[in-house]
Design goal:
Radius of gyration: 18 Å
């Protein structure tokens, strides 16, 4: 990993129309900083490949295209991005344009300000642009998750997060694990800090996630994470003692 380099990981599926304006905003937000953009194309069937081929040639920043041969879901896309990242910090941002890149640096600052004991800076959305039913379902899911996992995060599904690359690679990855990153980080013995971000509507396309199927899978995932944490309650401090 390159010291001082930030890896901005964008998981996406069929977001070709949203990527160029999002990259425009990222370049503005990261002006003067060393960064790379890692776009993880999760089996897109639109012209994402052609768009990224063009963007990689015309951008001043490094734009990398990591492609899944079939759709594996957002969590596995983030995993691919984590292991492809060359920077010491990964910033996650969704490819649909609803996450505003102006919050990238504040999230990084919040993570660094927390010191070595802080594992992740998690965005929490204000003024969400989803429909009323989806917002209600999300609030209920967050209430239930926080009640069981005690991760003190009101909006764990927000796509914007900053986390050390090495820590991210250590976390368990499974379908839906991106919604439990604060709890998984706490399991590793680190703290969580939060930063409010303002949600906005997507410019093109529609969401790829439904309410009922996500709720059903999310409940199963919640029980799985609860079991995982219940089996690993004691995190010792590890240090090497050098003799002689």
């Amino acid at each position: 990993m390159e010291s001082g380099l930030i890896s901005i990981v964008i998981p996406c599926k069929n977001e070709a129309a949203n990527l160029p304006p999002l990259l425009d905003e990222i370049e503005v937000a990261m002006m003067g900083r060393r960064f790379e953009v890692v776009v993880v194309d999760d089996g897109s069937t639109d012209n994402t490949c052609e768009v990224l081929s063009t963007e990689a040639q015309v951008r001043k920043c490094t734009v990398r295209h990591i492609r899944h041969d079939r759709s594996a879901g957002k969590s596995l896309a983030l995993r691919s991005g984590a292991f492809a990242a060359r920077g010491g910090i990964v910033v996650m941002i969704d490819g649909d344009g609803q996450n505003d890149p102006q919050y990238i640096l504040p999230l990084i600052d919040a993570l660094l300000a927390g010191g070595p004991s802080t594992g992740i800076a998690a965005g929490q959305r204000l003024k969400r642009q989803d429909g009323a039913l989806k917002r209600w379902a999300s609030r209920f899911a967050n209430w239930l998750r926080n009640g069981i996992l005690k991760d003190d995060t009101r909006d764990t599904a927000c796509g914007m997060k900053a986390i050390g690359t090495e820590l991210l690679r250590k976390l368990p990855f499974f379908e839906g694990s991106h919604r439990f990153l604060p709890a998984l980080v706490i399991q590793e013995g680190y703290g969580v800090v939060h930063h409010d971000v303002v949600d906005r509507p997507r410019l093109h396309g529609t969401s790829h996630y439904g309410i009922l199927d996500r709720g059903y899978k999310g409940t199963l995932d919640l029980m799985g994470v609860w079991w995982l944490r219940s089996r690993r309650k004691n995190m010792p401090k590890v240090e090497e003692i050098v003799h002689g």
